[in-house]
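Bumping with the actual sequence this time:
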Amino acid sequence: MTPAAEKDPGRAGWVFGAVTVIPALLAVAWLLPAFPLLLGGRLTAQPMVFMFAPLAAALCYFALRQLPGAWPSFREASQTPEATRKPTRKRASKPATQWWALAATVAVAIAFTVWQLAERTEQIIYLRDPATYLQVAYWIAHHGLLPIPDNAVAFGGPHPGLSFASSNYYPRGTGIVPQFMTGAPLVLAAGFWLHGISGALLVTPVIGGCAVLSFGGLAGRLAGPGWAPAAAAVLALSLPEQYTSRGSFSEPLAQVLLFGGLCLLADSLVIGRNTGRKLDWPGQDKVLAALAGLALGLTILVRIDGLSDILPAVPFLGVLLAARRRQAVPFGAALVVGVGYGLADGYLKSRPYLDLEAPSLRPLGYIVAITVVATAAGIAITASQKARSTARRLLETRTARYLPAVAAALTAIIFIGFAVRPLVQTVAGETNPTSIAYVAELQKLAGLPVNGHRQYYEDSLYWVIWYLGVPAVLLGAFGLAVLAKRTTRALLTWKDPTAAARVWALPLMMAIWAVVTVLYRPAVAPDQPWASRRLVPFVLPGLILGGIWAAAWLKGQAAQLGRTRATAILIASCCAASMLIPTALTTLDISVTKTNGVDAHGMAFRKIGTGEITAVAKLCRSIPPGSSVVILDQLTADRFAQVVRGMCNTPTAILSHPGALSTVVQGIEKTGRRPVLLAENKDELPGTPKQVVDLLTTQEAHNLTAPPTRTWLIHYTVWMSTPSPALSA
């Protein structure tokens, strides 16, 4: 331990704890008032600032006024006679945080943020989800409400074949309901208020950097602060993390809430044990627990899949209640509030999306209900002294003693099962004909044999191996298995003197649960890097946490066996390198040639959607004021309908029956507006069309059997014409 750490062992720890939870606190402070304002149709910049600023200050004050300076390690000291005679050789259960660990973790997060800002995407034309999030954010930032009005009156009322729906936008009544939850667009709206579209494109890379910082904080709490920089670096180098942080994805924001919530929960569980005196704020553990529950619950407002991610919080809460921990009630109440926000958003603002995802959400709903009922039953059973005594006798039987080993074995079997899954062709495939047709099209593009039933889900563990490497997966599986054994033992014996088991319990359950549910059925188009986004919230982070803890454990074992300090450091360095190097090689795709020397060809330095901002600006300038736009083909409608409706501020509809064109044009002219027609090809348009979009840019790759190393080209074309009076006559 350095002299500085000996002099003030808690100051570096407090700063480390504070900076790694502030992003989650700010996200909570923004989402809490933003969603009610959106529900009321009054989301604008001024009330948001007036509500966010004091709320953020209050949350940060109450959370940071007292934090732990150190956290318990989950590495048992040696029990050899020599170790017993020389207790000074045992590893401290609460290693102090040193300033270098804090500085290195922050440096990794800053470097990642700068990197992603430099390589950020410009996906504003719809191709996949990022453009949808961005367009919805643009709309609510400028109009403050959802759903989006269809503005049928601008077309002279309804007409046969005239619709307002496009990909990811569903008609409902007189409005258009966008797909997905509104949490991410609510945060992206701040970027539009600050600096327009350019400002909004900077938001997600910054959120991604905050996610890396918070993850380092979580790893430091669970494996030791000295391991935080390595954990943050592995996550930052992983291609899925970079891919989702460069575009307007929801996953980085969900990570901030998940990691920050788990950090706050860990703090609440150990703060009363971390000092030799009473807390300056006796209720601080309850405050931290409440903020943790709120952050975890609000992940559903960002991603509906967050309901699955945080499901292990239910049995964890049950254990807290059964143990009569002070944190149980505030954690559970705040968790319910956060989940309530998400469910309200789903039913009030994203109901068509929930209906679309019903085949997946219905089984999840049953699982949630069963988990809640089983947890409630367990709490009720253990409420009486007689029941607790009976349970204690059962846990002391010979059979119960094997349960920790069984937990470890089951964890290992999970990974073995996913590893051999491709050999037995166990496919948990989609039954959606549209999805199957899409995969068949991808197989054609990739030059692979077309199999109309395969979804490539059986390769899901190998997706993880592509992005983290075999050593990281092996270390992660080993770490999670050992942790499962130790946590189960602590639960069965009801002994956790250092609080290490309770700190690890929820992250461990979430990691194993995410591995099982996501890898069994990713429920995403299986092309890479698109499918890798499903690994981002907690599959990759969970394995990294397990691997980092395993590395710390191996280093500790070397020290306890009497090896030199140099040996322990060498083991730690090799473990960290085995996780960092394969991750970096996939992301960078480094090659060495005589001509260019060392060169990086991978996705790490590949931009997506370059030129889209300029192309959309040109399109908007080409549309005359006072126009009503009619799009004549579905592909152009999917890509540009909301772009024109939102960013060009022009009423837009799609016509599926060309024979009704003259009727629609007449209806537009009767309203005093000017009809404008758009299509992908000029042959589809009457009169003398002119090309208003001609953009050759890049998109993400669509690899099915290997990680991506290149971007693909895509060509956007749009032609425009203004019908002559003869057409409407």
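The tokens above came from a reply further down the thread. Residues 1-9, 77-92 have pLDDT under 50 and may be disordered.
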